[in-house]
Amino acid sequence: MSGDLRSAALDLLFDQDLPIGLALLDSDLRYLAINPTLARANGREVADHLGRTVADVLPQAAADLLPLLRGVLTTGQPHHFRIEAEVPSLPGVASEWEASYLPVRDGTGRVGGVLVRAANRSLERADEALDRVRRENDERLRRVLDNLFVFVGVLTADGRLLEANRAPLEAGGMTLDQVRGQPFWRTAWWTHDPALMDWLRDAVDRVARGETVRRDVVARMAGDTRMDIDFMMAPLRDDQGQVTHLIPSAIDISARRASERALARSEDRFRRAFEGATVGMGLVDSEGRLQLANDSLARMFGYTRDELAGMAIHALVPPRHRPAHQAHVQQFLSHPSQRYMAKRQELDALRRDGSEIAVEVGLNPMPDSEGQQVLVTVNDVTERRASQIQIERALQEKTALLNEVHHRVKNNLQVISSLLSLQARHADDGVRDALRDSQSRVHAMSLLHQLLYERADFSALEMGTYLRRLIQLLRDTYLGRSPQIELLVETPQDCSWRMELQRAIPCGLLVTELVTNAIKHAFPDGRTGHIRVRLGGVAQGEVGGEAPDAASWGSPSRWMDADPPWLEVEDDGVGLPPGLALGQGRSLGLQLLPLLADQCGARLEVSSDGGTRARLTWTPDTLGEAHA
What we know:
Layout: H1 2-15, E1 21-26, E2 31-34, H2 36-42, H3 54-57, H4 62-75, E3 79-86, E4 94-105, E5 111-120, H5 121-147, E6 150-156, E7 161-164, H6 166-172, H7 176-179, H8 194-208, E8 213-221, E9 225-237, E10 243-252, H9 254-276, E11 280-284, E12 290-293, H10 295-301, H11 305-308, H12 322-334, E13 345-350, E14 356-368, E15 371-380, H13 382-425, H14 429-455, E16 460-462, H15 463-479, E17 485-490, E18 496-500, H16 501-521, E19 529-536, E20 540-543, H17 556-561, E21 566-571, H18 588-599, E22 603-608, E23 612-617, H19 620-627
Parallel strand pairs: 17-19, 18-20
Antiparallel strand pairs: 1-2, 1-5, 3-4, 4-5, 6-7, 6-10, 8-9, 9-10, 11-12, 11-15, 13-14, 14-15, 16-18, 19-21, 21-23, 22-23
Helix pairs in contact: 13-14, 14-15, 14-16, 15-16, 16-18
């Protein structure tokens, strides 16, 4: 019984993975027993040692070890030593060994074997270095995982949490100790959703059988907040292909989900606006076919939305326009940046029943991953076109009527001028001069209506042309063929501005009074001289209205920076009598000058120094005062 116990105790001793290597050799130096520690140090399996000699197991070291072993068998004395010998665990290298050989005696006291205690220090140092590298790698991997904003964990095959990186722990407001060892589906990330917990428990079973699962889920985070994550769980296998662990991982997709929800809301708003628009709307692909159409477009052309889907847009154009329309569409789709048809255009369109309608079309490019698309807006303008035709017809009639009015006014003024001329034939000299002055004023007004009639523009009068024609009339009326006085008009070619009708009439009368007064009084006793009428100031514009703007004298900044428009009548005669002021004197013309200047919105300045100069200047202030 005691022998059995010793045998059991010996077996138990050699089966243990002790820190020291142990082996039992018989008298022939065969291995009777060896523990896993020494077998690993030798570089052989335990079974490869039993029944074999030291020379068989360690042939490279036998020459060094066998003499020492035999010495123990012979002398019966233990032997402690350090030695370097090559063994299979470190082939090609002399390992450093520290060993003790102890004699084993039988019941008679005779030495019948050797107990070996040995440690391969080289292998231990190599193992320690390997362990250190492994620890460093594990720590490095842990640091990498902890600094990644991804969720990674390790589960046992039955789903209990072993490890988790820092990101999910910090996001969830917990520590690893609080969740380690718990079933994964019962951890705080998932307990807000019982259905999700059931899915995770089933996922653990499936992954343990070798599947990989993936799904977008909502996890609970610190402060009872929620996070959308892309969750995946995969099996981890050993060298034999057995599933030993489960690896759950996840990434935060909250931003992507928010973008998807925002996109969905945007698409929903677009669809509702598209469907509810009162104008026809359609989406055309790169081949010129309708992909979408709203109800308004379908009703406009007499189709259903399903019938319009896939239809070429050329089918909605009358046959006579299709070739040109196809060319325009292809050019637009090829070079949408040119926006050849992007401006709204009026076109003729063809309805299902064959009738034609007038439509206004707008095209807006919408680049897409599948090619160029165009959002088309179509508005039925048939009634508007009919109204426009009526308005244009009425405008033509009104223009013709105004033409006739100005023509008749001009003719009536010519009749008045003829009557004044007849009256002057039988009057004395003083009355004849007065009638001739009145006739000149009538000529000035008649000429204005004649120019409006000739140019068919009733909004304003081009002053350069008007003044040249007016001066010619005054020259014919007062000077005839007399070379005594030369009457000149100077209007630079780059100075061409217009004056509205209500200001042009008093302006023409004022010029007439100034010129006739100079003809009559500036050159007494047969003196010769010159009378000049000059225009200047802004190169383009229109005098009139409440204030100058882009439609009249250009931008306000140009009005402030440029010279204001001016008109000047100057002679080199004897000048005005001393002390004579505007509005004074017995002459009707002199009395009219301030009134006429005010009516045409100008400031009149008269100077006399070796002749007479009268200057009309238009400014915003004077126009505002005249308007008021």
